[in-house]
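Batch job 17 of 40 flagged for manual review because the log was empty.
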Amino acid sequence: MTLGDTVWHNLTVRDSSAFITRISAPNLRTNCRKCYVETTSNMRLRHLKETLMGRLSNLAGFPQHHTPTTVLFVGGGPRAALVLERLIANRNAGPQPPLQVHLVDPYPVGAGRIWRTEQSGLLKLNSMAMDVSMFTDESVQCAGPPIPGPSLWEWVCQLRAGSHRQSAAAIRADTPELLTEITALRADSFPTRRLQSHYLQWFFERIIATKDPHLHVEFHRDTVSNILESDIGDRHLIEVASGQHLSADIVLLAQGHVEARPNSVSLALEAAAAKDPERLTYIPPAYTTDSDFTKLKPGQDVLVSGMGLAFVDLFVLLTEGRGGCFDRQADGTLRYVPSGREPRLLVGSRRGVPYRSKIRGSLQGTTGAGQRFLTRQAIEELLLSHSLLDFRAHLWPLVAKDAAYSYYRELFTAHPHRVTLSWEEFEEGFARVDWYSRERSDLEILAIPEARYRLDFEALDHPFATTRFTDATHIHETIVQHIDSDLRLRDSGEHSETLGLFMGLLGSYMALGQVVKLDELTPTGRVDLSGWWHGFFSYVDSGPPADRLHQLLALERVGLIRFLGPDVRFGFNEQSGKFAAVTAYGGDPVSAHALVEARLPTPSLATTADPLLAALSRRGIISQESSDSTKIRVDACHRIIDRAGKTRPWLFAVGAGVAGFSAGAFSRPHSNAAPFRDSDALAREILSAVSQAGAQLEPTMRPESHAVFSRAPQLSAIALLASLDSVHRYLG
């Protein structure tokens, strides 16, 4: 008989209630009366026995003298999986104590919400198959060990060769239509999100197979609704939507994009639509996949606010998704064959144009590696004269110069007929001048006769800043010409300098987190880093496949798309009883009975619909970067900074809603990519916190049975409730 059995047989039913009272006194009764009442009234005899057995016996395979430290991931998508892989890899480097990891996400583990298989097979990634990897390969400069593995493209090739039979069986059972895609896929193809979902789920299964036997991982298809912080150094209680309770020593928030409650503008538009629901339709910001577009009728005019990636998903679902098809003509142009079920989209946005398309082809001139101007040495020199750095004033000129260097190197060495100087001559002069200097402008005019080949970031960001539109037709035709010009530059293979620009911006985006620290930036600089810079980079470097813009022009040619231009203001016109859009040039408003906001909800702690973030924000445990930023504030180690400016050693955050260097969840292989470096550093910080938490835990049993009761008074109500619930789940 084990010690747990001995203690159990010496307790009567009456004694069990007394035991609960003893371990709860006095803190449980005086400071947490509700927990005391619920715990004592709802405790069952079997549950108490399991608690004792769990406290006193070899629980779930763990050594009898250890209480395993517990880490909980809020979110189980790609970013969480990447951090978990790094945690496992770093643990495998040497002997480690027992560790329990929980992942909680209402969507499939590994894939998460965005990449789940339950979405249209028409929706694609904005990256080529060969440019998607989840593996921290030998190129990654990090403290943890490299773990090579296949990119998405290589994984598909292995599937074709008969490997990964479990994934192949899942594809045949769940999404058999993917078999055609797998057969036809090329390295430079843009795969569907459903195929990516299977790759991500396979990745998660693979990393779990590599964990050490003392690491236990459990996934919960649920939503974390609250974290009750222990005030006596014990575990924290994790509440989930199903009513279950978990406990954790360390928590990582990795929810990704979260829902937001409607802001005042959306509420007003919803209220207007609600007055006449038979005629009016308003679809607020949301994930396109999760929105209901069935009320948008065939032939109906629909105002669309936003021209980013959500808009691309929208027009795909409302055209091909309704039975239309694209047909390639003999001259290479794309023709759209309507089904007759499509609405007509009247679309505008801040810039007035879609994101720049992905680039076809390869570099043809001299190549190089690394950043020449955006370096740690340059940052340290700036810090000699500035206590904190502003992104626009101090970092952006270095980023711009590095990106321009990459662009011009390709222009001069691959297309010398477009310039008047040799690359060596231009490079020497370019290296000496500041980005925002008359000397740089003069050098470009001297060396590059045609202005269209001179790089102008301001014009790139605001393509119509100096355009004076005359009427709606002028706006529409100008935007059509802009998209056509963008495709000639990026999809023809004749302008490889645009790929040089792409690579230069990508290099800076990935390098920023290495050369500058978050706490070296001004508050405004941190806002611009998470806001303007991320938005500009996404617009230039993270746009849709070129095929999508060819499709957009094909839809325009058959009258299903009308461009409203930049700086369009959307609202509701009470006089006409319709939604209205006012264009930049003025003129009469454009009206329609339907309005779709084609964008993700803006994350904000004030309006978040995520129950956990709302609860933590109310208590001041998390805070926003500033009034101008909607991102969660963290320090350089991803520890959350609370409203008082302090961090908790046990609470971390990462992902799209977090301030700082947003690096995504996966990236190109063999590129020392930031997601892998950052995830490795974060995993090591978590393991350091695990070590500290483990050092504070006492052994759970001693040979003397009275050790149970000497430990008991130190338990808080939160720790008691969480411990009882977690033990119950382990032992069934």
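Reviewer: the log was empty due to a logging misconfiguration, but the result itself is present. The chain is about 40% helix and 15% strand. Unflagging and moving on to job 18.
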